[in-house]
Amino acid sequence: MASEELEPPPDTDSDPGPAATEVAELRRRLDEALHTLDAIQNGSVDAVVVNGPKGPQIFTLESPRSWPDAATSTQRCKRP
Questions:
Q1: Contact between 31 and 6 (Cβ < 8 Å)
Q2: Of all residues in the chain, what percent are helix, strand and coil, respectively (each to 5)?
C-alpha cells in the first residue's frame, strides 16, 4: 500500500471554526498513520514502542526468512 498524500480541504472561510480545525487535525493524524504503515510495510521499521499498563514496551521486528519460505513453513504446521 503506497502512502497517499491527503488533499487539504477547500478554503471556504477565513475563520475555519472548530469543526474545520478538528477535520484538519484528523487529516494530519491520518496522514501520519498512513506514513507509519507505509514505513512498516516497506521494511523501514525495525522496532515498535507500545504504551501499555506496565509502561512503554519495545517490540523488535525481524524477518529471518523470505516471505515464500515463511508461508511454506506456516502451511506445514499442524493445528492441534
A1: yes
A2: 45, 15, 40
Portion of the chain with pLDDT greater than 90, in percent = 42
Measured CA to CA, the distance from residue 62 to residue 50 in angstroms comes to 17
CA-wise closest residue to 3 among 29, 28, 39, 27: 39
71 vs 80: CA distance, rounded Å: 19
- The separation between CA 31 and the C-alpha centre of its own chain, rounded to angstroms, equals 10
- What does residue 51 show for φ and ψ, rounded to 5 degrees? -85, 120
Question: Which triple of cell numbers denotes residue 50?
Answer: 507500545
Q: What is the pLDDT of residues 13-45, one digit of tens each?
A: 566 689 999 999 999 999 999 999 999 888 899
